Amino acid sequence: MDEDGIAVARRCYQAYVDGDRTAIEALIGEEFSFTSPVDNALDRKTYFERCWPNHRNLAGFRFVHLVADADRVFVTYEARTATGEAFRNTEILTIRDGRLVAAEVYFGWPMPHPAPSSGFIDR
């Protein structure tokens, strides 16, 4: 990686917390693609229309794992919302030339976990 991918990842998450659209636009490449369980390869324009407004709901991130491997950074975080709720997600970020070019998001669970320790939730 030309620039430390973990540092780029941290700046992306901080831009969300700060509501800094200028910062996040500078970090996301033109060829950006965003995929999650409910989004399939959104382009940069659609990502900003659909996902960026969520920055208003985020108060902070606590990183559980930040692991770089070649041009990818594997991130697990616990996020706090503006209303005090918390949740955990994992994301795989692809970073090239100091810019985020792809994000895969895997939704986690609310915090604290709704199932009892060593237990599960019947559905």
TrEMBL record:
Which residue ranges does the record assign to the SnoaL-like domain?
9-102
The family database entries (InterPro entries) matched by this protein are listed as:
NTF2-like_dom_sf, SnoaL-like
SUPFAM superfamilies membership: NTF2-like
Q: GO MF annotations for this entry? A: isomerase activity
Keywords, alphabetical = Isomerase
List, alphabetically, the Pfam families matched. SnoaL_2
**Name assigned to this protein:** Ketosteroid isomerase-like protein
